[in-house]
Amino acid sequence: MSAKKILKTRIIIGMEIHVQLRTQTKMFCGCELSFDAAPNVHVCPVCLGHPGSLPVINRTALRYAILAGLAMNCRIATFTKWDRKNYFYPDLPKNYQISQYDLPVCGEGHFDLPSDTTPKSIRIRRAHLEEDAGKNIHDAGNHTLVDLNRAGTPLLEIVTEPDIHSAEEAYSFCTELQRLVTYIGISDANMQMGQMRFEPNVNVEITHQDGVAKTPISEIKNLNSFRSVKNAIEYEAQRQIATWEEDTTYELGKAANENRGWNDERGITEFQRTKEATHDYRYFPDPDLVPITISTAMVDDIRADLPELPIARRKRFVSVLKLSRKDAETLVDHRATADLFEDAIQAGGPTNVLCKQMINVWLSLAKSKQIHVANLGISAAGMAELARMTNQGDINKSAVKQIAEAMLTDAQSPSAWAKQLGLMQIKDTEATQAWVQQAMDNNEKAVQDAISNPKKAKAALGFLRGQVMKISAGRADPKLAGELIEKHLMPDSDQ
Questions:
Q1: N or C, which terminus of the chain has less Cβ within 10 Å?
Q2: Whole-number Å distance between alpha carbons of 47 and 54
Q3: Distance (Å, rounded) from C-alpha 96 to C-alpha 87?
């Protein structure tokens, strides 16, 4: 055990993120991309690495990479090329991966995290295009099966500088990055389907009584959930600190860097192999692919496809639309939902009522169907009308969900459904007067409390109003009912 006393520690985290691009075909051939196809049906001589087969660049993948780079404030290369990264794995038939080494399509940039205090900016080192490997299947007894449908899938690998210093910060970065790539439409980023994978590089700076030490770097491979990212980093940092306390020669440059896997069931990282260095891959330019010159005109054309990004949109929803931060985060989470919300505002829906109905009614209905609000088939005009009717008192709040559910079954307007279901509030004074009189006749104690018991007066008035709504089957106008109740109880109050 080390006799050196630890004064403080600082976690150092750099991220490598693989994002599967939302193209119809693979990176260098015309094979279809399909998640659940039978094994080895979407393959061809190119992605199988047959001698003499020639790769062709997927133009859409290149465009998506540039779009992502612009969203992350990256420097877009004017000249980029392709390289062969040489290593042997059974799920990579060519024995090399086509990637980008020294001239990536996207260079230095930065990604700003939202913050209530000082904004945090994570520097992006690079983002480059490459192809994915296939998939090894280990559930066939003593045999390993290989499915090469995934081999050649276009990936964008995003590499950050080691600017992240806690598991919570890494969690925030990963969630915001996933939201970004889906928002700009370059990836579905479904982690259960392996479309976005995170690999944190973790080490710890330890300040002790005699100086400062840094532990070796561990790269935790292929994490496919935000929770795994957070838990794996927390565990790995503590493991490295404990290892250094046992042996102070466990330092960067003295002990080997490692690749480790995350065992979610046991909640630990496990050693896989020592971490490869760049020279181990023996990069060299791919002779089958020509370099690419990217013009300013091409970048400007792609830049025009950039939507308002999630963080900026949330800020606007709070500052301009006056939504709470929590509500803004909920609405902005999915781009089409946020678009529909703003379209409904443009269609005349009151913002505050629309926001409540979007979150409490429409999002709830969408969640029950496991789809997004935009896929419910409800128009912005329909949502706006329902919000206006609520705001104007044409229907009460309890009727909103019933009308919304009816709108899912038929394209009738909210007002048509409200009339058909008998949910339009009645503002007729004579009819409401009769309901008020009935409520008072049936609840003499509440009437007496409202008149002569100051401590119970407010509750009694609310109870009587509720009884009117019950008697009228929700059709009475609550405001009018309240006014008539007070007039009955205090007939001379307006004289």
A1: C
A2: 10
A3: 6
Return d(Cα 364, Cα 208) in angstroms, integer. 52
Rounded distance between C-alpha atoms, residue 417 and residue 306, angstroms? 39
- Concatenating the DSSP letter of every residue in 108-129 gives SEEEEEP-SSS-EEEEEEEEEE
CA distances from 368 to 104, 216, 326, 328, 371 (A): 43, 47, 21, 21, 8
Question: DSSP characters for 258-308?
Answer: EEEEEETTTTEEEEEEEPPPGGGG--EE-TTS--EE--HHHHHHHHTT---
Which of these, 43, 14, 17, 13, lies nearest to 31 by C-alpha position?
A: 43
Q: By three-state DSSP, how is residue 87 classified?
A: coil
Cα 58 to Cα 61: distance, rounded to the nearest angstrom: 5
Residue 144 pLDDT > 50: yes
Say if strands 120-131 and 154-160 run parallel, antiparallel, or are unpaired.
antiparallel
Every domain of the chain with CATH number 1.10.10.410 lies at 429-489
H-assigned helices in 125-225: 167-183
Q: Residues 169-204, buried b or exposed e (16+ Cβ, 10 A)? A: bbbbbbebbbbbbbbbebbbbebeebbbbbbbbbbb
Note the Cα 192 to chain centre separation in Å.
Answer: 13
* CA pair distance 306, 313, nearest whole angstrom: 13
Which pLDDT score is estimated for 36? 86
The residues near 150 (Cβ < 8 Å, ≥ 6 apart) are: 132, 133, 134, 135, 194
Assigned CATH topology for domain 429-489 = Arc Repressor Mutant, subunit A (1.10.10)
Judge whether 128 and 187 are in contact, CB under 8 Å: no
- Read off the pLDDT of residues 162-201 as tens digits, 9 standing for 90 and up: 999 999 999 999 999 999 999 999 999 999 999 999 999 9
Give me the DSSP letters along 428-449.
-HHHHHHHHHHHHHH-HHHHHH
Proportion of the chain above pLDDT 70, given as a percent: 94
**What is the three-class DSSP state of 208?**
strand
Q: Count CA atoms within 13 Å of residue 390 on its CB side.
A: 26
Lookup: tokens for 252: 């960067």
